[in-house]
Write a structure and sequence with these properties.
The protein has helices at residues 12-23, 37-47, 63-73, 86-98, 111-116, 121-130, 164-172, 190-203, 257-268, 285-293, 311-317, 327-337; strands at residues 3-8, 28-34, 51-55, 78-82, 102-105, 155-160, 182-186, 207-210, 221-224, 230-235, 241-246, 272-276, 297-301, 323-325. It has 340 residues and is α/β, with parallel strands linked by helices.
Length: 340
Amino acid sequence: MSVRCLVVDDSPVMRALLSGMLRRDSEIDVIGTAADTKIAREMIRELNPDVITLDIEMPGMNGLEFLEKLMRLRPTPVVMCSTLTTRGADTTLRALEIGAVDCYAKPQGAIQDLMAIDDGQLADMVKQAARSRRRALPLVRDTATRGEFRWNGNYVGIGSSTGGVEALTELLQRFPENCPPTVIVQHMPALYTASFAARLDKQCAPRIVEATDGAPLERGTVYIAPGGNTHLMVKPGSQPFCRLVEGDLVTGHRPSVDVMFRSLAGAFRAASVGVILTGMGRDGASGLLELRDGGARTIGQDESSCVVYGMSRVAAEIGACEMVLPLEKIGLKVLDLCSI
């Protein structure tokens, strides 16, 4: 059965471009387009789409306001469409926090040229969104943590993809100010990772930064892998540190969760905790298995709390997960495994 998609964008050129890209995929049926949120609201009532692509900046009610109302009143999988700008990145991250499944970076250039180089990314996002789970309301943020956390020397690695912005916010809000050194690979465009780290830093007790090459791994700090041309690895020593290494795509990604997990296994072996969260694909599964085989403690997010049960599903199927837990229990479990 085809995925029924509604395209919402105030630009007629962009509506034509996005619709054309989606119609190239035989599994997607573009059932309509809307130039503003008022028209979109009526079309959603009449057509009941499986997925909506939504422009962030529109006249009248903007995309974020519309998305928040939609998630509360009629939860529907949404792929946000945004320009790759610093301001756009911050707004997109807010959309993902509200409940958008994914974000597509609007292409720039002549429409005929863009149609010719369409790589199918938007179509893949829409089909994945149709299989995702959405919540009617945002997660209740229980930020309570242990009264006193004393680190036992374990390092933490976390991997996530689609749905990861929401999941990481939930998890890290349970970390105390003196949390264990933690490295994270979240699949997102290069321009977004610095904004993502800055947003998390404001919302959570620990210091949260975009990782830099040579940065020492310190207690109370969480390091987000930068998007782009490098993989995030950790290196051991009297003062363990981050290393950003240029390289090819691994499991289809750069940075790759597999690369990060394998470096964690090589650096710390049993003195580490690996966590794999929501996301499409299989990146991180084999690396998590290597961690577990080396004596590390490993956790996978369960199906019911994943937006997309892909990465953690594969990890569980190959025996990489010592424990499979709902998202709301993972943060405190990590602290238990890292405490004296």
